[in-house]
Amino acid sequence: MTFTSSRADGFETLDDETTERWMRFGRSGTTTFPMLLGLVVEDVRRDYCRMRLPFRDELLHAAGFVHGGAIASLLDHVMVPAVGAVLGANAVYSTVDMHVQYIRGIVGGDRAEDAVAEGWVSRRGRRSVFCEAEAYGATSGDLVAKSVLTYAVSSPG
What stretches of the chain show up as alpha helix (H) in DSSP? Predict the structure, then answer.
């Protein structure tokens, strides 16, 4: 079974320029944490994003599972395009609260697989954005972890 979802269908598409800008997320000229993890945006829409964390042995902890911090980072990063795509280019926003529930691990070896996360905005306020995210095994389709997050949004200045 391969991870598939129709969740994206419930979210409005963005204009081409905005979509292209966010599809490049984490691939700037400067090495950033998303680049170190190898995160790849697969789909971005208004209030929604799907992102992949490619499996690498370097992400494993000593027991042979992908480290929970890597999964938490995927769940957090998938929200950046979902939250930011409708904000002005100079808007400032960041995670202020995040709860992660781990359901199962992703193992290395012959059962290794990428993780794919979907993130969506549950509610937008003037200064807070409430979000949810889920990560799945890309090949198995099994739920790996889920998260609820709150982002603070402010104008630059």
Answer: 16-23, 33-37, 68-77, 79-84
Say which amino acid occupies 110: D
Q: Count of CB atoms within 10 A of residue 94's CB? A: 11
Q: pLDDT 10s per residue in the chain (157 long)?
A: 577 788 999 999 999 999 999 998 877 777 889 888 999 999 999 999 999 999 999 999 999 999 999 999 999 999 999 999 999 778 899 999 999 999 999 998 889 999 999 999 999 998 999 999 999 999 999 999 999 999 999 876 6
User: How many C-beta neighbours within 10 Å does residue 143 have?
Assistant: 15
Label the pairing between strands 115-124 and 128-137: antiparallel
- Distance from CA of residue 9 to its chain's centroid? 17
